[in-house]
């Protein structure tokens, strides 16, 4: 799905969960350049509780970044912050990463599904129409069976992730 199909309005209010991750960070940068108001949430758990170097002062100034444990999407109070921000779109990229799933599969499943559930509950309980774009992983397909993996590739996951 092209980014433009999710962000058609001018100065939309957009939430990005997992906002300091590699993909989410680049999405955040582009949406700032496009003139949107951004609320970025990240618990910094995969960054050893340090803000990555790509999060420049300029990005922090232009986006409302809630970083650290206060940006934990498994926490109901974080959902309240999202609700108060009154978003048009939520890009959900928050998750415990693949290596974590290999060492702690139950916790990985619990955390990742709780994030999705909290966001879905937020949407269910709001009177406003909010678009949710949930990011997944190629891990749902498992090992590539074809040179090009598309949405029609067989689902044969090999990890808990």
Could you provide a short overview of the structure?
The chain has 161 residues and is α/β, with parallel strands linked by helices. The protein has six helices and five strands. The chain is globular and about 40 Å long.
Describe the protein.
With 161 residues, the chain is an alpha/beta fold. Helices cover 36% and strands 14% of the residues. The chain contains 6 helices and 5 strands. The chain has a 5-stranded parallel sheet with strand order 3-2-1-4-5, with helices on both faces. Helix 2 (22-33) links the parallel strand 1 (13-17) and strand 2 (37-42). The relative contact order is 0.15.
Question: What is the β-strand count?
Answer: 5
Give the C-alpha Rg.
16 Å
Which whole number gives the mean pLDDT?
84
Q: Decide which structural class fits the backbone.
A: alpha/beta
**What oligomeric state is this?**
single chain
Listing every helix as H and every strand as E from the N terminus to the C terminus, the arrangement reads: HEHEHEHEHHE
Q: What composes the largest sheet?
A: 5 strands, parallel
Parts with pLDDT < 50 across at least 5 consecutive residues: none
Cross-sheet strand order for the largest sheet: 3-2-1-4-5
Distance between the termini: 23 Å
Helix tally equals 6
Portion in beta strands: 5-15%
Query: What percent of residues adopt helix (DSSP H or I)?
Result: 25-40%
What form results from the Cα inertia axes?
globular
Write the layout of secondary structure elements.
Elements: H1 3-6, E1 13-17, H2 22-33, E2 37-42, H3 57-62, E3 64-67, H4 76-85, E4 89-92, H5 98-103, H6 105-124, E5 131-134
Parallel strand pairs: 1-2, 1-4, 2-3, 4-5
